[in-house]
Specification:
The structure is a homodimer of 337-residue chains.
Chain A (H helix, E strand, L loop, with lengths): L2 E3 L3 E17 L1 H4 L9 E2 L10 H19 L9 E5 L6 H7 L5 E4 L6 H14 L5 E8 L1 H8 L15 E2 L2 E8 L6 E6 L14 H20 L8 E5 L2 H14 L8 E3 H4 L12 E2 L1 H17 L5 E9 L3 H5 L6 E9 L3
Parallel strand pairs in A: 2-3, 4-5, 4-6, 7-12, 10-11, 10-13
Antiparallel strand pairs in A: 1-2, 2-8, 2-9, 6-8, 9-14, 13-14
Helix pairs in contact in A: 2-3, 6-7
Chain lengths: 337, 337
């Protein structure tokens, strides 16, 4: 029987292994400092498709295919797909996955979706319901910008706190047997809404949820910041990262050294003019499936906590005067047990 | 270790019990033939809120609270919430659940979401990760109509194959111990797209996915239609139900006697002018959490297969000339083991 630990955490008795990952990103992401870790960098954000939405689906489909190829698996050997994205009704994932012969669970956790999929994938795989689970998300600058903000042709100015949605996709395949890296613990967030209403400051809206999940993770497990080489959030950006680290410091947890944020890593913040950093499901997904997984395999990282954060509003709830609920899910990944 | 069976099915070694359910619906649903089974019927589709979206969130929040009250549980005793709805970015669920102190997984499976949440809830609860899981969905005629079709004020004509989105919510609380009704098997669907493009004929778009899942369920488990008192789909409506039954018949499965569709049950099809019947996540959810659960508890039903079906497009993919992917998830519920 697998064990619950504390309030919101599961400690797996049979931790699943991350068998393989893949990541594919767009040109701007490929021009950033993490470019050596991505599997493919696309010059054309349309990827030969007629619309950005079809292009995002193609990113997700091709990333899943690449991960399966690297894992030497076919879609028939995938027991469950856990997938989501930011487009209305999650069509990025739905259309990408319709060609695969595998049971499908659609998820929506905004930019927290990669850790939601890893969490559910780990639960289902560790419990023996699946031999292989495929966890995947994507985002696309152009589909997100037109849906959540302005038509791209408008060329509106961006506030200093705004973040730049990453064009990319990350996919991880979990297996019930294997020799690591292992998903040993998950701490699943609850929705936290501190009344932030500024959609141009997502970092501030999501930071309270990430602080809540991280403190709960430490309390539930007894781990301390020193137990980690890396605490990776995604995507709080510049503003939210400072809020998180300061909030943890006030509670007696010093994470300044271990903490990195996928939104700050993926771009050269000043040089690439992305204001507060990257965002979107594809940001944390591509950094985790690129940089983190490859550094774990290389032995340069041993114990990582990855915590993707999501802002759960839509454009209409903001127009109706409501605030932005946030959520964050944490996943502990270790090179060996 | 829990057991996978066949291609897409899990047979639970420790089946979870459906501890309690609740259902709340709007006036039109309360005027229909299933009205005695709902816990509350609302006269005001706004439920005192300023917008339909806020009203839908209130439906979901109040339905969850009612289910917890009936189960004599507080939100702190709920380990996981599995929730979703049809509004962009699933804000119906996100805003409803922000007041609860429980880990949250957001789902999107269109009208299949209730069975997606029951499936994941059953997996997580049966594996021992959770003592109590809360599974919930909602839909609202007005939020769906304005988002997917036309402004309500426009008063557009409806085609004979169109369905009427149910205003309502259904919630089920699962527990790892208990004396039934039990969730013994789940068959999780894959995405099936047969090229149907008519958004006014959702039943036809979803029927192939439901046939695929149902045939797979019979093949995986060895069960036959005769093993069930009721095979409940939701929501194929009049058109999709006929396609499903005929497709199964061609494969040698006669389900004409056992099959009912939540979309056909919830309204008096002719008398209430709903064309091909009801639809929306709230339809299957309120019929399952109302009629099915109460008849199981009363001993009038013993073995039920509930299979919610979803159409995974959005308005934009249709405008871009794409077809409608469908999905269906089946959950077997038995009064006793």
């Amino acid at each position: 029987m697998n064990q619950r630990k504390g309030k919101q955490t599961v400690e797996f008795k049979n931790p699943s292994t991350i068998l393989q990952t893949a990541s594919i990103v767009g040109k701007k992401e490929g021009d950033g400092p993490m470019n050596e870790y991505f599997d493919y960098i696309l010059d054309d954000d349309y990827w030969g498709e007629k619309t950005w939405e079809k292009a995002e689906s193609k990113f997700q489909k091709k990333t899943a295919e690449l991960a399966m190829r690297k894992a030497q698996l076919t879609d028939k050997e995938i027991d469950y797909i856990f997938a989501g994205d930011l487009i209305n009704q999650c069509v990025g994932a739905n259309y990408a996955m319709r060609d695969f012969d595998a049971s499908f669970f659609g998820l929506y956790g905004a930019c927290s979706t990669m850790c939601e999929s890893l969490s559910l994938g780990a639960m289902v795989t560790s419990a023996g319901y699946a031999e292989h689970s495929l966890c995947i998300t994507s985002s696309h600058f152009c589909t997100a910008e037109k849906q959540f903000r302005f038509p791209l042709e408008y060329g509106g100015q961006r506030t200093p706190t705004s973040q730049w949605t990453v064009t990319g996709s990350g996919c991880a395949i979990l297996t019930s047997s294997g020799d690591g890296p292992y998903i040993t613990h998950i701490t699943t967030g609850k929705i936290v809404d501190m009344g932030v209403c500024d959609v141009n400051n997502m970092g501030a809206a999501m930071a309270p949820a990430s602080a809540d999940t991280l403190i709960t993770h430490f309390e539930d497990t007894g781990f301390t910041p020193e137990d980690y080489d890396l605490i990776l959030t995604g995507d709080l950006g510049v503003v939210g990262s400072d809020i998180l680290c300061d909030a943890l410091n006030q509670k007696g947890y010093d994470i300044y050294k271990q903490h990195k944020d996928a939104g700050k890593m993926i771009f050269d913040i000043k040089g690439q003019d992305v204001h507060a950093g990257g965002s979107g499901c594809g940001c944390c997904a591509s950094i985790f499936c690129g940089y983190v997984f490859k550094e774990l395999k290389a032995g340069n990282l041993n114990n990582v906590l990855v915590m993707a954060t999501g802002a759960l509003m839509n454009t209409m709830t903001i127009q109706q005067g409501d605030s932005i609920p946030g959520i964050a899910h944490a996943v502990r990944v270790c090179r060996s047990l």
